[in-house]
Amino acid sequence: MIVYHVGVTTVEDYAAKREPHRRAHLERLQGLRAVSICLGGGPAPDGRRVDLVYRLQRPDQIKNALEEDPYWLGGAWTHYEPRSFSQFVEPWEMVPIVLDGTRRAVIVEGPVEQHDMAQFALIELRGAGRLHLGGFFEDGRLWALTKTADAEQARGWFADTGFWKTDALTTRPLLHVL
């Protein structure tokens, strides 16, 4: 199995463009979650970007995973960029779907200082209830979905371990839908 992070670019009027397709999109994602294909994600609060995590058997399946989505077919999504994780920390639970924007989260991205120790630290962050899921790409960079809406707190959790290049870590908000 291959786990992918997919960054999706949306159209300018995303909220309006997605509305006629929203029910079908959510039903599809629920079906993909039920078979452990879609592991989590959601849109940025401003709707300009969507982050999704998929588990697939083959690299050629990413195209179908995205381009068969009602948002892609309906023109609400315009571009996507998949990146495969070389190491991935699974979520301990599949959280309930939240559609009202109240489950705010922070994505932390950036380079590591000590890769081997950072792998353990990521698992410990999940165990402490601070991380939903995340991992490392081939280039060693981190992508992690944290369980806080506070960007400084999220960055601090990683900085406190001493295993990341703290000054190079970036954060951005996410509405954690699934």
Task: Describe the protein's topology.
Layout (H helix, E strand, L loop, with lengths): L1 E9 L3 H5 L3 H13 L3 E6 L5 E8 L4 H7 L2 H4 L3 E13 L14 E7 L4 H13 L3 E7 L4 E5 L4 H11 L8 E6 L3
Antiparallel strand pairs: 1-3, 1-4, 2-3, 4-6, 5-7, 5-8, 6-7
How would you describe what is shown here?
The protein is an alpha+beta fold and 178 residues long. Helix content is 30%, strand content 34%. The chain has helices at residues 14-18, 22-34, 61-67, 70-73, 115-127, 151-161, and strands spanning 2-10, 38-43, 49-56, 77-89, 104-110, 131-137, 142-146, 170-175. The protein starts with a strand and ends with a strand. The model has no long low-confidence stretch (mean pLDDT 95).
